[in-house]
Specification:
single chain; alpha+beta; D-Maltodextrin-Binding Protein, domain 2; 8-stranded mixed β-sheet; binds 6-O-phosphono-alpha-D-fructofuranose
């Protein structure tokens, strides 16, 4: 059977699900940019791309060289094609305006160009996370696109995906009708479909959380994690394993592959912040992918995709993965 490339899948989606041609073009361009990022990441010390810049992003985090390189690759790949009205990124304070010399299009692209970048220098998997929204009708309004155009709940996403740069480079994608996985064939230079129907097992025996923050968690999370640790002698009556890669893309990819629950709760270290992870370009795209794969994603009290954003870089607590476990820990927040 001939191999289905990303390009062929997108063309077939255009026919079977009326995927608009400019959305297909957008996904193709993002995939090509991810190939370029994969190439840069794989150079490591040989490419002079490791280490940090002398700059910080809007979160006050020191930027890695590859954060900036990856951001520029995505901007340069997407700004000229006429499919976007604007872009936003973890690495830029404000929305990116499409230069006046280029046509504008119907979509907004929001991304974390290189998630997990603290792992780059220790050669652990990192990734690119992206979310696609429709640009609201501007009613003929000219001038810069304001941040408010991006502030749409995750249910408005028309596509979401991530690339993971690990032993293999893979692209996982949802257009709203299931989750497909594509593996980069470096000889051909194409993403080839290797996983045509990704599903998150409803139950699991594996959880992911940064245990070093335990003393800072709120009571429902304390209760849930203590039950996980109690194993078969405890109320959950089964033993659990723990994984924490500290790269959301890698942890979520494992959960999509074999199940699990991923947690980054709010904690008392910064009580004014609802969590560490960012809603628009981490939690929302990952939540759409997880839900499309049959899992669940909440902030502890509500479905993440229903959250109405109030700012471009706002943070959110995240509980996502196998439905049974997400519903359990979310239920403890209501107790
Ligand atoms: P911690 C990476 O910096 C990131 O944003 C996510 O990819 C990851 O899940 C989390 O932060 C790790 O945070 O506090 O464990 O280093």
């Amino acid at each position: 059977m001939s191999r289905v490339t990303l390009s062929r899948y997108l063309i077939e989606q255009t026919r079977s699900h009326n995927t608009p041609a400019d959305l297909r073009f957008l996904i193709e361009v993002v995939a090509r940019a991810c190939k370029a990022i994969s190439h840069q990441v794989s150079k490591g010390a040989l490419g002079g791309v490791l280490g940090s810049m002398e700059t910080e992003n809007v979160q006050g985090e020191v930027q890695k060289k590859l954060d900036v390189i990856s951001n520029e690759i995505l901007l340069e790949a997407n700004e000229w094609g006429g499919h976007l009205a604007g872009m936003a990124s973890e690495e830029m304070d404000n929305a990116y305006q499409i230069p006046g010399r280029y046509p504008k299009g119907a979509y907004l692209l929001v991304f974390d160009p290189l998630d997990g970048s603290s792992n780059i220098d220790v050669n652990v998997s990192v990734g690119t996370i992206f979310s696609v929204l429709r640009c609201p009708d501007r009613n003929g309004e000219e001038g810069d696109l304001g941040e408010e155009a991006f502030l749409q709940p995750g249910t408005q996403q028309v596509a979401a995906g991530y690339a993971i740069y690990g032993p293999q480079t893979m692209l996982l994608l949802t257009l709203g009708n299931g989750v497909k996985g594509f593996t980069l064939d470096r000889e051909l230079g194409s993403f080839v479909m290797t996983h045509d129907s990704i599903k998150v097992p409803e139950s699991t025996q594996e959880f992911a959380i940064n245990m070093s923050n335990q003393r800072h968690w709120e009571a429902p999370v304390q209760r849930y994690v203590s039950e996980l640790l109690a194993g078969e002698a405890g109320p959950l009556e089964k033993n659990y394993n723990m994984r924490w890669i500290a790269s959301m893309v890698a942890d979520v990819h494992r959960i999509l592959t074999r199940g699990g629950v991923f947690m980054y709760p709010r904690d008392s270290r910064e009580p004014e912040k609802p969590g560490k992870l960012r809603l628009m370009y981490e939690a929302n795209p990952m939540s759409m992918i997880i839900e499309q794969a049959g899992g669940a994603a909440t902030n502890g009290t509500q479905r993440i995709l229903d959250i109405q954003p109030t700012s471009l870089h706002q943070r959110v607590a995240v509980f996502l993965g196998s439905k049974d476990e997400v519903e359990r820990v979310t239920g403890y927040h209501q107790a």
